[in-house]
């Protein structure tokens, strides 16, 4: 009887499966990689917020120790400071003008780019460029020169400098924000490219024209992207500072027509050295932005359409 030799490799015992590291050890490694972010969030965000909240209940001028005054800053803000309410009204007007105009222009340009067959990349980059440059002080100063007495707008229209007229200065500032429509435009363009072409074909078969297709197909399918842009641009509009500072030369004029909320906060905190009062203003702004965002999310249930959820 013949015996078949078994290879040495086959006679070896199977290799043991690698042991998994204990869960606690794996969590420790995760915290090591997360530690730079956690440290930055604590030192650069949470700690300054806590200090700001404390200062909002104090009288602090940046040079002497803060003195606890309780709710005095908030009471003075709401009942004794007319410029505060002017800054609130100016900010609300700015948000109501700049955000809709910016989103409308971004959507129109995105629709135009979607239909282009050649040069789409070039025009997309060209229209996006102002979003990268517009937040800089240098561009804001150029914008002020364009709308100043003897500037480009004055020479073309003969209306005088907008930045020197109380009724026009805020509009000039809002147009600077509208000009920076590149970021929402790119988001709109991405959303438009995700809409199935079959929906437009079906609408055309049913006899829908371009305008009806836009209202019945584009707007509902694009509503999540529209809501996303609306929330982001609204939050940014409430915090506008650089255009107002440049257009008004840091004074909020003429006649407080460009005195937006952050400009007045800057004036109280760093010009008048009322840092406690400015901290109180900052916390009120945070709460207002939170409330406005919550309202937008609440109302979105009635007009934002998600295809995965079906008809509402």
TrEMBL record:
Residues 1-22 are annotated as: Disordered. The chain crosses the membrane at residues 29-57, 92-113, 125-147, 167-192, 213-232, 275-297. Residues 88-296 form the ABC transmembrane type-1 domain. Its main location: membrane. Coiled coil: none annotated. Pfam families: BPD_transp_1. It comes from the Bacteria. It is a multi-pass membrane protein. Residues 1-17 have a biased composition (Low complexity). InterPro entries: ABC_transporter_permease (IPR051393), MetI-like (IPR000515), MetI-like_sf (IPR035906). Keywords: Cell membrane, Membrane, Transmembrane, Transmembrane helix, Transport. It is found in: Cell membrane. PANTHER family: ABC TRANSPORTER PERMEASE PROTEIN, ABC TRANSPORTER PERMEASE PROTEIN YESP-RELATED. Belongs to the binding-protein-dependent transport system permease family. This is Carbohydrate ABC transporter permease. It comes from Streptomyces tibetensis. The lineage of its organism: Bacteria, Bacillati, Actinomycetota, Actinomycetes, Kitasatosporales.
């Amino acid at each position: 009887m013949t015996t078949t030799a078994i290879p040495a490799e086959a006679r070896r015992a199977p290799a043991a499966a690698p042991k998994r590291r204990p869960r606690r050890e794996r969590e420790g490694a995760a915290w090591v990689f997360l530690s730079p972010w956690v440290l930055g969030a604590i030192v650069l965000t949470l700690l300054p917020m806590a200090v700001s909240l404390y200062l909002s209940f104090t009288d602090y001028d940046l040079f002497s120790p803060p003195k606890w005054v309780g709710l005095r800053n908030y009471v003075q803000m709401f009942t004794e400071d007319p410029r505060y309410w002017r800054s609130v009204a100016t900010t609300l007007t700015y948000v109501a003008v700049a955000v809709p105009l910016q989103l409308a222009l971004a959507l129109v340009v995105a629709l135009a780019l979607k239909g282009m067959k050649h040069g789409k990349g070039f025009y997309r980059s060209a229209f996006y460029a102002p979003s990268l440059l517009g937040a800089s002080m240098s561009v804001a100063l150029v914008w002020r020169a364009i709308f100043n007495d003897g500037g480009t707008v004055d020479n073309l229209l003969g209306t005088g400098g907008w930045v020197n007229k109380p009724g026009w200065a805020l509009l000039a500032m809002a147009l600077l924000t509208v000009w920076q429509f590149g970021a929402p435009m790119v988001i709109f363009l991405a959303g438009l490219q995700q809409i199935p072409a079959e929906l437009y074909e079906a609408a055309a078969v049913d006899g829908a024209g371009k305008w009806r297709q836009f209202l019945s197909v584009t707007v509902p399918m694009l509503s999540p992207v529209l809501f996303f842009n609306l929330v982001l641009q609204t939050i940014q509009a409430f915090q506008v500072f650089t255009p107002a500072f440049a257009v008004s030369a840091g004074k909020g004029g003429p006649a407080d027509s460009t005195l937006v909320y952050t400009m007045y906060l800057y004036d109280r905190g760093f010009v008048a050295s009322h840092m406690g009062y400015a901290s109180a203003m900052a916390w009120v702004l945070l709460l207002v932005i939170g409330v406005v965002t919550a309202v937008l999310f609440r109302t979105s249930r009635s007009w934002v359409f998600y295809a995965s959820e079906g008809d509402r």
